[in-house]
Design brief:
The complex is a heterodimer. By secondary structure, chain A is an all-beta fold. Chain A contains no helices and 11 strands. Chain A is globular and about 40 Å long. Classes of the chains: A mainly beta, B mainly beta.
Chain lengths: ~120, ~110
Amino acid sequence: DAMVIQNPRYQVTQFGKPVTLSCSQTLNHNVMYWYQQKSSQAPKLLFHYYDKDFNNEADTPDNFQSRRPNTSFCFLDIRSPGLGDAAMYLCATSMVAGVGTDTQYFGPGTRLTVL
Amino acid sequence: GQNIDQPTEMTATEGAIVQINCTYQTSGFNGLFWYQQHAGEAPTFLSYNVLDGLEEKGRFSSFLSRSKGYSYLLLKELQMKDSASYLCAVKDSNYQLIWGAGTKLIIKP
């Protein structure tokens, strides 16, 4: 089945210790997104890639970086995690950008705990 | 600013019908999405509306009124597995998705 895969599902890190979350997709979609979602809040868009074109949201902290080495994979790097970065990190994909009907499909998420 | 409003929490009975409302104020409109999100899991796509009216898909229906900036998700014949959060999201003039915080739906036997 075509899908969006995220690893790991659960990640525990220490305050200030860098962490990398990964996402892969077999849907052959052009666009990939990283969201941060805290409990009972709306997903917050951090980055998105249209193919290899990188788009950083204006209010995404510098502590967060992303890489998309090829169309199937995308990584989220948190350089120095703080307690406020504990959240669910969701990866999503969509076929194209700039089209109203384009639907985003989500991976299962990585829950990050910062000790 | 851009804003999506949904009730924080609703409770309904198994077998009944529930309507979850969403109002929005966005810069432009290119469609409205409803997603279902079970606790600790990722959102899954339910419906998309871009024209006024009702879209029916099995037990779930979604309605849109663009002039009123209003949508609702209607769930019929509620089942215990429908206990989840339901998120409303609107695509603005830049085709960016603006998300609501979601409505937590609790189903009681």
